[in-house]
Amino acid sequence: MERKLLTKDSYRSLITKLIGQNYQVVAPVKKDTMIDFLKISSFDEITEDYIVTVSSAKTVAFPRNEKLFDYEKQNKKLTQQDYDFDSIPQSVLIGVRPCDAFGFHSLSSIFCWDSIDKIYTTRLERTTIIGLSCNKSDDYCFCTSTKGSPGSTAGSDILLTKMTDGNYIVEIVTEKGAKLVADFSDLFTADGGVDKESLLAKVAANFNVDDVLAKINSKFEDEAFWTEQAMRCIGCGACAYVCPTCACFDIQDESHGGKGHRVRCWESCGLSLFTLHTSGHNPRENQGQRWRQRLMHKFSYMPDRLNTIGCVGCGRCSRACPVDMNIAEHCMSIIEN
Amino acid sequence: MNNLQQKAQQLLESGNYGLIVGYEKGTSGKARPVFIRKAEHASKLIFDESCDQNIAVYLYRQEIKHDKKKVIVANHHTLKSIVELAAENQVFDGDFMVLAFAGNGDIIELNTFEEIEKHVATLYHGLTEAEAAMMKKIEDMSLEDRWAFWENEFSKCIKCYACRASCPMCYCPTCTVEINQPQWISVPSHTLGNLEWHVMRAMHLAGRCVTCGQCGKACPLELPIQLLTYKVALDSKQFFDSVAGTSICADNALAIFKPEDHENFIR
Amino acid sequence: MARIGVFICHCGENISATVDCEKVAKVASEFPGVTVSVDYKYMCSDPGQNMVKEAILEHNLTGVVVSACSPRMHEPTFRNACAEAGLNPFLCEMANIREHCSWVHEKSDATTDKAIDIVRTLVEKVKRNEALAPIYVPITKTAVVIGGGVAGIQASLDIADAGHKVVLVEREPSIGGHMSQLSETFPTLDCSQCILTPRMVDVARHPNITLYTYAEIESVDGSIGNFNVKIRLKSKSLDEKLCTGCGACIQKCPVKKIPSEFEQGLGKRTAIYVPFPQAVPNKPVIDRVNCTYYIKGKCKVCEIVCPTKAIRFDQEDSFVEVQAGALLLATGFDVLKTNFFPEYGYGKYEDVIDGLAFERLASASGPTKGEIRRPSDGEIPKKIVFIACAGSRDPAKGIEYCSKICCMYTAKHAMLYKHKVHEGTPYIFYMDIRATGKMYEEFVRRAIEEDEVKYIRGRVSQVYEKNGKLIVRGVDTLLMGQPVEIEADMVVLATAGIASPGSEELAQKLHVSYDKHKFFSEAHPKLKPVETNTAGIYLAGACQSTKDIPETVAAASGAAAKIAGLFSNDLLKRDPLIAVVKKCAPPLYSSCTGCFMCIPVCPYQAIDKEEIKDRSGNIIKTISHINPGLCQGCGTCVAFCKSKSIDILGYNHDQVCAEVEALLNEW
Amino acid sequence: METNNTNNFEPKVVAFVCNWCTYAGADLTGTSRIKYATNVKIIRFPCTGRIDFMLLMKAFANGADGIIISGCHPNDCHYTSGNFHARRRWMIFRNLLDFIGMDVNRIVFSWVSAAEGAKWAEVVNESVDQFRQLGPATSYQKLIKNSEFQEVE
Amino acid sequence: METQNIYLPYIMQIEKVSEDAPFVKTFRLKFINPEDAESFSFKTGQFGEYSVAGVGESTFCIASSPTRKGYIECTFRKAGRVTTALSDLEEGNTIGFRGPYGNVFPIDEWKGKNLLFIAGGIALPPMRSVIWNCLDLRENFKDITILYGAKSVADLVYKHELREWDERPDVKLVTTVDPGGETHDWTGEVGFVPTILDKMAPKAENTIAIVCGPPIMIKYTFPILEKCGFADEMVYTTLENRMKCGFGKCGRCNVGKTYVCKDGPVFSLKQLKQMPDEY
Q1: E203 and E113 in a common domain
Q2: Is residue A72 part of a domain?
């Protein structure tokens, strides 16, 4: 993999130029009490003081509300205004942690399964992902248990690793990344050969996701297990909404008078009414079943059907969880039992 | 083994109780709810300052609702919520035992609603200084600033409903936000829909919010939404002298009235 | 699918003068779900109603919006028309573009646009209306008549004669009301008591009438067909069963100088008293305020002299509860206290009196045995001035309305005076003479022409005493505003009639509406003159507005006929616009959480608990239940319920939301 | 919070009124031919107690610039106490809206009896003037427009 | 329609509305755009997303047979928000439709076999597509038997078609209503579908059974078929889970690994038995 070097000043120039060239630049920004991905208008808005952002980077390609098309009803006739694909901006996504970047792989496997969701794919195509290796971690991180690592290049177009002097090692991962580097080649200099590994955070691998994959199917029927696992779960949607790979959504209409649009918006399998039939029947009527669905989807259905793991080990869901449902612990319970 | 753990162990060993809902040590030094069914697990139980979560929400949970051999380790938020839930017929006298703590740390067994109500009367009902300061900060803002403040906050909401799920008073099986005939509230999590949702949630907690702040603590985006329900709680107190979570038989502040209720805005 | 018919009424020109009705009809025809939209000169006319009926049949309409006047006016008309055409009447709504639009706005595009908005709103509502069946509730065939004046007496007798039970409640010790105080009545000059007292006796004797005097309404709940009326029986300090009405106590009572209310203060009464000799019931009550025993703790003369030992000093107020199907308000009127007008000297000069006092002076049973003698010295006045409109038609100081009866009784007073004091001269200061009843104008002409009553058109500015005479200073507007001064021996003020004291409180107890003068409001000024807005509560007489005797009696008989009509059925048909707790499919059964916080919300105690059981009888959950017989449909519980588990028929969530959206969005 | 753009601005106003007092009062305004602004359109409810605060939110979400709520005077409620319950509800709701920075002057509360036809016209005209002064409810309507799509927060 | 927006529906016009039972309606839908009509094709068993602009989308099967070209039909019961809005529409109105989605009844594999259709209540519509498909290719199959039951006579849908099938010599139709649901002039059976099926005792040999109905009916019907000797792979049914997208993304219709919208809605009993009981 081609490596280059980007000084902190060049990094500033790069971002400033991108903004100047009307790229939509999205970066971790400290807003109020937390750090999240936001569209920036100046380099100074960027922060690097985070382990992971509260929400995942998926919002760039799978925003929480996506207008699918507009319509108008007039004189009892309906006309539809198709999605304006041209409106999707060229974007650069900065500061994406390797776990998050890898999340796009899982997400894409869902959105490209047979029926290709062109809204998603176009958004992603027009986004260059500049990853940032992790130099710190916390108790929630478990990427190394799910085949990731603090310095993994998978999913990023370019991966930056910050050196002790504040400059960055640049790893050019994809052609899209190479193109961006080429476009601004004057800002990148030759790689100094610094050892990347030594700069990375250490994340202990407490389990091997393959063991989860191997055991989880046999656990399916063990209702008592799932009930007990989910006892603490209060059934909100926080975990799914912050997850980089969760893709469940709802389709809703919004209208005022005769005009309106259809919207795709996030939803979560943890919510009790997610699967409720109009008849009153609910195939997943208790929280145990819903928690099982969440884990099975990530560790069984996605691996089996889409050939990808539905968990990148970012630990966001556990951080966001009001009752500390730590997914890594639950994985270990599956292995242990 | 500390007092609580010993007590829990005894209770479970006695066979009179089969489940203890309490707190255990969670990730990164956080406390989290735990469900202890075996005496040998009693040592997991903790009770310290980190245990500020309101866990009354579990009392009416389908899986354990009808289990009459349960015990709940309650902090003062949880206790107040139990009283309010009792007033709203969501939990029933004799369905559980409460382990509360006296000022000196001694464990108090509360078996009946009457005992709980009496104990709750000894607790402080009101906002902490920090909370009161936050309220004041917002109330002191100009109208425009307040709007800007909340518009910014509401824009962040992802409608995960962690606030609702963690609030013991949000026990409706079908929340108004889930009703679509008519669609009361926009489903997508845009600022308008979010504002509608939070205003509705606060209004529905009028006279019912025990000011535990659990909704705000639960919010993954750290929206200070507890201030909204604090507002209705403070107003209920000020206007109607109604404090939620103090009486197992009081009528809701908005379910009753006094002819002399005083306002200054109706022409 | 919705097939809505929209019918725009021009109401002659009442609507079309400011609203472009044709445009409204055209625009409405484009609304989704509207099948037919037409405009017509008079929708409420037979041809108009037929248009609606024919459209229902021709287009198989599922809903009708009649865009015309207020639903108060013609909603029943059009709902009946729909029913006749086979459409459930509750699928018809009125869009009020007259009272709420054409009458309150000038002709403009904005007015037409507003009418369109109103129609669109009601179209969206009616699309969501449900076919409803009326509710039937049993009727308790007892009427409570409140007020024992001529209206109450007449109505009670009519209802009782129709075979229904009546409870007559009078707050004074005797029935009779103001009419019993009158001397002669216009325009026939027959004796008031001669006509009234036999009716009073009839009331007392009628087997269907229960009479409670010295009693007041404590509280009323329930609703049409089934009111529960709690009556406070004020203590008379007397065991009525024992009292024979011999009058010994009255004769011996040492307190004899109390101004008699019945005599308007011109006569005196004792502390234990009957208001007047023909009182019904003719049994005394003790006026505790003036009784020596109650003031000083000793006396008890009455107790000593009572041959049947009927006096009960320690008697307390008691209560009776009456179940009633209908209530009749006949609480009458009062006269404005003339201290509003210090310039007339009422209260300052003994010989300035009001009309009711004059009635007592002229009455053969009155304090002067029918001789007109002035209160100050008992002299027969030689010149007497009557001032009409003392308070009436005077928004600045009195009341803005015309009291209606004063012109006639002032003419009558002047006539009676002239008949009794042949050499005397009666003057009447008046603003206009309003003599609109049968034989009324002739009566006034008689006063002027035969009895030579001097009518002076103008207002009196001042009455003052000078050399033992009352100087009445005014102007004669017919003489170009020339000042007039009359040296009178006596002045009679035709004081305005006002609502009876306590009307407001009573209205609030009964939940009937009243106007700003505290007169009770009729449901419709023309078409429902004896009904109130509250079903099952009726009006008669001067409690609605001042009325003379024939009008009062007509209203009383009218109200009685309404009540008898209501009682002619065993079941009462009621609008089914009530709240219901929504149910749904298992396993939820209902979104009601069983918090029961709605129970205290209901003003009618209509909410109770219902257990939901599975097939084997196990209780699955307990939820709220609304008793359809008790619910009156206010909807307070509907807005209160957090889980939106209660809805109200006719104003349901879907309807009102659709209305809000339709009102604010064009399509 | 709003710009005071009063140039030819005609506020959209919804009036939620009870059937027994204010609706009848508004009928009386008509019968008395007292004129008032065309901006206000009435929705009839059985009682002010029926008026859900969510309907006010709905009205704002649908572009209302002002709202009038009116019912029976205290003690005059056709249903005894619906207006008392409503009053408590509005006391809390109004303060909550104020707390989130909404201008509560956009909601006018009044008691108008069946006899107060003139008062109804006054309430309407004063309210419309007040709403004109406040200008369009842009801060709220901005949310409606923004509701269409939010790209990256 | 030139789009790659998988969420954008075709606009279809309601050509005919029929009211089949209380709250149950059938729409015949035609494409507004002739090119769409040209390019569109579906197979029996597939479903779609029907939408009312401003209200939302609702999932139900295509109730007409692919052999009947030029239109599709759908039958729905007024229940939720979208079906309420749909039932408010009339002929000439336009609605949105996207699809077809899902798998199909393998009728090609059924050639030369007897067919036994068992349906209950509002579940006849998905069956109707395949019934007509088979009837239109009548020579491919041997005996065709239809057992259809509903709560009451009024609740029987497609009454005119039931009459048509009844009159056909090449179809055996048995209709039944639940006890208490019969009218005085009812000539069909009275009893629950499984009971009547038990009484009919169909022979399993060379026969495919297709079962559609409410969960309770299905639950009691399978054992009877088993009793009659039907092998699991000879019994088919169609599942109706809650769906939003129709193409395996929204996450609602999972039954274990199975995505009802992609792997279904048609399943053999054999497949069904391998799935967890989460439907």
Answers
A1: yes
A2: no
Confidence of residue C338 (pLDDT cuts 50, 70, 90): low
CA C128 to chain centre: 37
Best residue in D17, D27, D72 to probe C by mutation, most C CBs within 10 Å? Answer: D27
Q: Which residues of A touch C586 (CB under 8 A)?
A: 280
CB pairs < 8 Å spanning B and D: 125
- Give the DSSP H or E segment for C555: helix C549-567
- CATH label of the domain that carries residue E151: 3.40.50.80
Claim to verify: residue C507 and residue C494 sit in the same structural domain: no
Cα torsion angle, B71, B72, B76, B80, sign: negative
CB E6 within 8 A of CB A262: no
First and final C-alpha spacing in chain C: 19
E151, E204: one domain? yes
Asked, for residue A108, whether it belongs to a domain, the answer is: yes
Q: Which structural domain range is residue E159 located in?
A: 107-238
Q: Which residues span the domain enclosing D69?
A: 13-146
Spatial CB neighbours of A166, under 8 Å, sequence gap ≥ 6: A8
In this prediction, residue D48 carries a pLDDT of 96
Residues in chain C with CB shorter than 8 Å from the CB of D45 are 635, 651, 656
Residues B178 and B234 in one domain: yes
- Would the ipTM clear 0.90, i.e. be above it? yes
Residue C661 lies in a domain: no
pLDDT in single tens digits along all 337 residues of chain A:
899 999 999 999 999 999 999 999 999 999 888 999 999 999 999 999 999 999 999 999 999 999 999 999 876 788 999 999 999 999 999 999 999 999 999 999 999 998 899 999 999 999 999 999 999 999 999 999 999 999 999 999 999 999 999 999 999 999 999 999 999 999 999 988 889 999 999 999 999 999 999 999 999 999 999 999 999 999 999 999 999 999 999 999 998 878 899 999 999 999 999 999 888 889 999 999 999 999 999 999 999 999 999 999 999 999 999 999 999 999 999 998 6
Question: Rounded to 5 degrees, what angle do the CA atoms C212, C218, C224 make?
Answer: 90
HEC readout, chain D = CCCCCCCCCCCCEEEEEECCCHHHHHHHHHHCCCCCCCCEEEEEECCHHHCCHHHHHHHHHCCCCEEEEEECCCCCCCCCCHHHHHHHHHHHHHHHHHHCCCCHHHEEEEECCCCCHHHHHHHHHHHHHHHHHHCCCHHHHHHHHHCCCECCC
**CATH number, domain containing residue D112:** 3.40.50
Last residue of a domain, one of A143, A174, A204: A204
CB C215 within 8 A of CB C236: no
Taking the Cβ of residue A269 and every Cβ of chain E, the question of whether any pair is shorter than 8 Å is answered with yes
Q: Is A75 exposed, middle or buried (0-12, 13-18, 19+ CB in 10 A)?
A: exposed
The Cα C269–Cα C368 span in angstroms is 15
Q: How many domains does chain E have?
A: 2
Structure-block tokens of residue C278 = 């023909």
CA-CA distances (angstroms) from residue A330 to A59, A242, C283? 26, 18, 91
Same domain, C494 and C425: yes
Domain identity same for E122 and E31: no
Contact at CB, A64 and B186, closer than 8 angstroms: no
Is the pair E, D in contact (3+ CB pairs within 8 Å)?
A: no
Closest partner residue to C32 among A76, A279, A281, by Cβ? Answer: A76
Residue A278 lies in domain: 206-337
Do B99 and B163 sit in the same domain of this protein? Answer: no
My answer on whether A8 and A90 are in the same domain is yes
- The number of distinct structural domains making up chain C is 5
Question: Residue E64: its pLDDT value, please?
Answer: 94
Range of the domain at B48: 3-121
What whole-number distance in Å separates Cα of residue C439 and Cα of residue C161? Answer: 30
Domain that holds residue C525: 142-234+317-332+501-571
Tell me, yes or no, whether C489 and C470 share the same domain.
Answer: yes
